[in-house]
What does this fold into?
Amino acid sequence: MASIILSWQAADWREWVFLLEGCDAVIQAMSPWSPSSRFQEFVDEVNQNFPTSPSPIDSPTPGIYQLLIEASRISKSLDIARLLLSGREEQLHLLRQLSIFLQNLMIAPPGPTRSEQLRTLYPLRSWMAWFPKSLVHLTKGDPAVLIALAQLNLVIMASEPLFPSVSKVYFTRMRAEKTFSIYAQLLLGGVRESGRGDETFLNSDYVEKVMREPIAVATIVQNQCNGDIDGFHR
It folds into this structure.
């Protein structure tokens, strides 16, 4: 897990390839005991989709090179989430960073090579620097945290086809499944106490509105994974 997280942070494509080779060796060593591991789902996902033996040559990769949905829909979803989470600064900071990433992506799309895609992805790959600390408390079911995570998944899943050379390590199928889980948890959550002592209220109408695009993209990802559609990198 640590090696995969490090691969997200790789400064250049050569370092990325080196880290992936190490990750592949570790995953293969873990496979025999994955059925008894707490990380079985993760190991199985890696075995199915991880880019083993990545080419050391920084050559162009064919791909779709378009967002799964229109950028305007993603931007609107982020705006809705920002309005709903007014006053929750940690989560608002995450949403602002996602908006900046999306805007820059539309102004300067990534090129076809691994190095160009890693360079464009860097702000998103460095998510740990600005990821809300409250996300470590997901078990508390804070709706604001769940909404922020759903919007992060939305941006990652929707932009994944733009990065065919490097995107497999983002495990979009697992992100889709977790997005559906967040949706169900929000519908059941109602009023939850935040860490500051106030309340975040979400009725079903609010949930449907803020989760519309994350669920739409998660459904596309799920259908493409199940159908194994050509040109889509899981």
Remarks:
- Confidence is low (pLDDT under 50) at residues 191-199, 229-234.
- The first helix runs from residue 2 to 8.
